[in-house]
Amino acid sequence: MNTLRDIQIVTTARIFRAFGKSGYGRRLIEGAGSTRVGAAALGMVLGYRRSFRTLGEAERAVKPYGKGGHESTENVDLHISFSARLSDYAAFYYLRDRVLRIQKVFDLGGNVGNLFYCYRNYIPLRDDVSWTVYDLPETIARGEALANSRNIKNLKFTDNFQQIDGADLFIASGSLHYFDRSVPELLAPVSRLPKYILINRTPLTDGQDFAIVQDGGHIRVACMLYNRAKLIADFRRLGYQVMGEWQSPDFRVPVLDRPSSSVGAFTGLWLELQ
């Protein structure tokens, strides 16, 4: 990794983030980005912190400067240490009257089962609930070891998305934006769709889909910002209706070369198959 280049990008990102908070700054940055020369200049100084058309482009841009991906030990330890956040209480509201009808759960990008360990302290999961986490092989290995050490029998792990078939509840909490296909696209070929869908803590945009790189200090990862209206329309085509929506203002994403597209609060959705 080019350390000097990395320091330059991080420093420039801080300046742009502060400058883009003002109306004048936003107009200046986006005005420059509207020209070919200006866009090239922004891309050069911001490096991996600019916006990208696809998740793959963002992943390639940040790869030389990566600090470890989702499977890094530090990232796994950080997530499992979390307790319920404010946005989880919105999820509990919709789950409380439906939880006894939910036997099979499929948890997309569920890490080492942190949601399972958290949620069972707040909602009365059925004794026969089967909770399956879909994640990366390295994370699965840690999750299985942890579950075995705690003698947890109903928490399973997989890297096979087809195991979602027949699930009662599909969860994408803090994970939807790390996939290059949205949930409706992932669900389209599934023969038995889940009755309930919980999406939590995901950044949505009013413009076209695009990708950025999140720099969390301990980890740098590419993520997608999906268009909200299109996402909901795609769900409706599958037969889902949005029954609830909430915001998570404790999660936000700055878009440094397009400040007006910055996300000031992540979104949560509860959907049911009609």
UniProtKB/TrEMBL annotation:
**GO molecular function per UniProt:** methyltransferase activity
What processes does the entry annotate via GO biological process terms?
methylation
Q: Which InterPro entries match?
A: Put_MTase_LIC12133, SAM-dependent_MTases_sf
Q: Which UniProt keywords apply?
A: Methyltransferase, Transferase
Q: Which NCBIfam families match?
A: MTase_LIC12133
Q: What is this protein called?
A: Methyltransferase (TIGR04325 family)
Organism, scientific name: Paraburkholderia silvatlantica
